[in-house]
Design brief:
Blueprint (H helix, E strand, L loop, with lengths): L8 H8 L16 E6 L2 E2 L3 E3 L5 E2 L1 H13 L2 E6 L5 H6 L5 E7 L2 H4 L2 E16 L15 E5 L4 H8 L5 E5 L2 H9 L5 E5 H11 L4 E2 L4 E11 L3 H16 L2 H10 L19
Parallel strand pairs: 1-5, 1-6, 8-9, 8-10
Antiparallel strand pairs: 2-3, 3-4, 6-12, 7-10, 7-11, 7-12
Helix pairs in contact: 2-8
Length: about 270
């Protein structure tokens, strides 16, 4: 996995020239207090502890961005299926919750970033030998409600796997261990966090397919907010915070963190 720690002048110039048309939604720039939705169900990424507080890589990113924006932040939980909803109904001002940027979602929400580049991978039991996505042919893979990862295997990669639906990754993990499914597939950081917390020997295939561009979701039209978030993301890489947080949460997971890539921004349109 190639991640290069360098912020280029072209990246900053692209931010400035983002070609973003102004919209009519109220901007986070004009608010003193903002609500950011994070995942409650993903260990090391976004996880709600027994005391109700949140922890994980995305949670730390959310707090960093709020601090750079000069905002007081309240965190709220959002499962995969709820990420669009909490923006569209106004419950959240931003979503920092393993929100992969794709064209379908961009029709409904505005994305800043991405703030992290990862890859799709496969989580399996110790007795399995999956080496790449083609090995999932004819096998049962967990389909999490609101996530498009499983569909990317069958639709984009044209692998004839059987999708078995579950509400969240905690259920997927139990289904994997009880042999209701043969594999779980999604962002490698999500799978790494699940495997570390579970501790039963589940392991990654290190298949590294389908680049995952994880962005910050905002309400459609909040171009000023998007531009400010992008500036904060640049700072996060320039000041070393991005590297520090990735090593903090995934340094013992087996992920290759030798170099950290600064993502190429989508633009606030």
């Amino acid at each position: 996995m190639k991640r290069v720690l360098a912020v280029t002048a072209a990246l900053v110039a692209a931010l400035a020239a983002g070609g973003c048309a102004s919209g009519e939604a109220a901007s986070i720039v004009d608010k003193d207090d903002i609500v950011i939705a994070v995942r409650p169900d993903l260990p090391s990424v976004g996880f709600r502890k027994a005391d109700g507080t949140f922890e994980g890589f995305d949670v730390d990113v959310a707090r960093y961005l709020a601090r750079k924006l000069g905002k007081h932040v309240t965190l709220m939980p959002a499962l995969a299926a709820d990420r669009d909803k909490v923006l569209l109904d106004g419950r959240a001002d931003m979503v920092v919750a393993t929100y992969t940027i794709d064209q379908d979602r961009k029709a409904r929400v505005l994305f800043a970033g991405p703030y992290h580049i990862s890859y799709q991978d496969i989580l399996m039991r110790p007795d399995e030998t999956f080496k790449n996505v083609r090995d999932l042919k004819g096998r049962r893979i967990c389909q999490v409600k609101g996530s498009n990862a499983a569909e990317r295997v069958t639709e984009e990669r044209k692998v004839a796997a059987q999708l078995v639906p579950f509400d969240d990754y905690a259920q997927c993990l139990e289904a994997l261990k009880s042999r209701q499914v043969d594999a779980v597939t999604t962002n490698d950081v999500i799978l790494a966090g699940l495997a570390m917390r579970d501790g039963s020997g589940l392991r990654l295939a290190n298949a590294q397919f389908n680049e995952q561009r994880t962005g910050v979701g905002l309400r459609k039209g909040d171009v000023p907010g998007c531009e400010e978030v992008n500036r904060a993301i640049i700072d996060m890489y320039q000041d070393g915070t991005a590297s520090k947080l990735l090593h903090k949460w995934f340094g013992k997971s087996g992920l290759n963190l030798g170099t950290i890539a600064v993502p190429q921004f989508e633009g606030c349109s």
